[in-house]
Design brief:
By secondary structure, this protein is α+β, with helices and mostly antiparallel strands. It has a single domain, classed as Alpha-Beta Complex (Cyclic Phosphodiesterase, Chain: A), CATH 3.90.1140.10. Helices cover 35% and strands 32% of the residues. It contains five helices and seven strands. Strands 1, 2, 3, 4, 5, 6 and 7 form a seven-stranded antiparallel beta sheet that branches.
């Protein structure tokens, strides 16, 4: 059964979008692989369709891709230098667990990038309510688990064994949303 998205997750284009796109922060492969290993360990296998990711925008409308989205992505990426990013603290979600990105080591830069992208898109009035709000960079390692004991056990294990993980934010990655899967579209490299 296909679920309809929450109204707060639908782009404000006035029509039903054929394609929506997700925008993430692209990190170095080693850091990405370590975070994905943790996601694969904790996320319910039957619904885990994705690698670990740091989402900046959840539902960019395909109808505005060429005219409004791609030019801003190219512009912001060309003016942004690579930067360190630290996955620093596990925290609880309602039905799962996640790891935050340190404000001092990547989180603030991520918010600046989010704002630089968001400002012109808000003027275009096409962002979903979710994407028009703030951004808290984090890795979701477990979600959609109804069993509180299972979530508590995973959180305790992650907290006990956790070592902060340093990586490098290298660019932006654009993905086409496809029934729960994300299909690779393209990347926008930051400057050295």
């Amino acid at each position: 059964m296909r679920r309809s998205p929450s109204p707060s997750h639908i782009p404000q284009t006035g029509s039903e979008e054929e394609n929506t796109f997700v925008l993430t922060l692209l990190t170095d492969k080693a850091h990405h692989d370590r975070m994905t290993e943790l996601r694969n360990r904790y996320f319910p296998k039957r619904i885990n369709k994705l690698a670990a990711h740091l989402t900046l925008f959840h539902a960019l409308p395909g109808s505005r891709l060429e005219s409004d989205i791609l030019p801003v992505l190219r512009d912001v990426a060309s003016q942004t230098s690579k930067f360190s990013i630290l996955a620093d603290k596990p925290f609880r979600l309602k039905k799962g667990i996640a790891v935050s990105v340190s404000a001092q080591e990547g989180g603030s830069r991520g918010k600046e990038i989010h704002h630089a992208l968001q400002a012109p898109w808000i003027k275009g009035a096409f962002l979903s309510d979710q994407d028009a709000s703030g951004c808290r960079l984090h890795y979701t390692l477990m979600n959609k688990v109804d069993d509180e004991a299972e979530v508590a056990k995973a959180y305790g294990e992650l907290n006990r064994d956790w070592q902060p993980d340093l990586g490098t934010a290298e660019g932006l990655a654009l993905w086409r949303y496809d029934r729960g899967f994300w299909r690779w579209e393209r990347k926008f490299d930051f400057q050295n």
